[in-house]
Amino acid sequence: MAMPNEALQKVLQEISQKKAFAEQQLLIVRQQKTARTREGRMLQLTSSEVSSLPAETRVYEGVGKMFVLTPTSSVQARLQAESEALVKEMSNLDKKEDYLEKTYANSKSSLEQVLKGAS
């Protein structure tokens, strides 16, 4: 049973829009993952540098337009907290990426099925 032209056009348009949206969101998520990976490497490097300093070394952190003397233990604790938050965010981005990949694949296969059914 063939679908009327108008209904077919509407279905194709909806599926195409869903596919394009998923593809666009997938690109954004991958860019975010790349940025977060870079941030993670920077945190890891900073943490290793701070931990290699002698205990009596003065460490300053930027706060707005000034620098404040901060104990190395506080700096390490902040870096650890940021690193844990980054791991959680990466996990969420991985889940979102999986969902978008499935949505994209499903939209693509639906589009192919509709086109095969139309011909």
UniProtKB/TrEMBL annotation:
Q: Which InterPro entries match?
A: PFD_beta-like (IPR002777), Prefoldin (IPR009053)
By its UniProt entry, which Gene3D superfamilies does this protein fall under? 1.10.287.370
Instruction: Give UniProt keywords alphabetically.
Output: Chaperone, Coiled coil
A GO cellular component annotated for this chain's UniProt record is: cytoplasm
Give the transmembrane region(s): none
The family line of this record is:
Belongs to the prefoldin subunit beta family.
Spell out the protein name for this chain. Answer: Prefoldin
